[in-house]
């Protein structure tokens, strides 16, 4: 199973990549929606993680484009707790939503689920 993170935070990318590697999950990072979609086209079974503070991002349009490529992909969006509107937009678009703190505390378990899903073929 593949995990893709859309974020411009290089330090955080490094941490998530290390966790993915330790779980045996193929990890790719993307700094733009277009790059994310290219990675997604390569692997339809994926976990997509979106940093809502990654530049100007139209969450609903981005999620729509992701769903066109892979309707069943799990999308987790996270951002600072003070960005209530962006978090609400992500929830309305169908994402699992977390604050940055929640995501930071749970990305390892998300990747573990991703690895388990890949091992079971789902």
In short:
This protein is of the alpha/beta class and about 120 residues long. It is built from five helices and five strands, in the order βαβαβαβαβα.
Describe it for me?
The structure is a single chain. The protein is built from five helices and five strands. The chain has helices at residues 10-23, 33-42, 59-69, 84-92, 100-119, and strands at 2-6, 26-30, 46-51, 74-79, 96-99. A five-stranded parallel beta sheet has the order 2-1-3-4-5, sandwiched between helices. Strand 1 (2-6), helix 1 (10-23) and strand 2 (26-30) form a beta-alpha-beta unit.
Strand order of the largest sheet: 2-1-3-4-5
Over all CA atoms, what is the radius of gyration?
13 Å
Q: What structural class should be given to the helix and strand makeup?
A: alpha/beta
Helix content: 40-55%
Measured between the Cα atoms of the first and last residue, the distance is 8 Å
| Integer average pLDDT | 88
Largest sheet: 5 strands, parallel
Low-confidence parts lasting 5 or more residues at pLDDT below 50?
none
SSE succession: EHEHEHEHEH
**SS strand fraction:** 15-25%
Beta-strand segment tally: 5
Shape: globular
Q: Helical element count?
A: 5
Give a quick set of tags describing it.
122 residues; alpha/beta; five-stranded parallel beta sheet; 5 strands; globular
SSE inventory with pairings:
Layout: E1 2-6, H1 10-23, E2 26-30, H2 33-42, E3 46-51, H3 59-69, E4 74-79, H4 84-92, E5 96-99, H5 100-119
Parallel strand pairs: 1-2, 1-3, 3-4, 4-5
Helix pairs in contact: 1-5, 2-3
């Amino acid at each position: 199973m593949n995990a893709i993170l859309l974020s411009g935070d290089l330090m955080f990318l490094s941490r998530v990549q290390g966790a993915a590697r330790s779980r045996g999950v193929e990890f790719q990072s993307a700094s733009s929606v277009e790059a994310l979609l290219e990675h997604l086209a390569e692997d339809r079974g994926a976990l997509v993680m979106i940093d809502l503070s990654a530049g100007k991002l139209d969450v609903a349009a981005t999620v729509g484009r992701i769903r066109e490529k892979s309707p069943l992909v799990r999308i987790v969006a996270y951002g600072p707790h003070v960005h209530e509107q962006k978090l609400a937009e992500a929830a309305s678009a169908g994402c699992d939503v977390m604050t940055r703190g929640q995501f930071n505390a749970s990305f390892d378990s998300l990747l573990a689920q991703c690895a388990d899903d890949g091992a079971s073929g789902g």
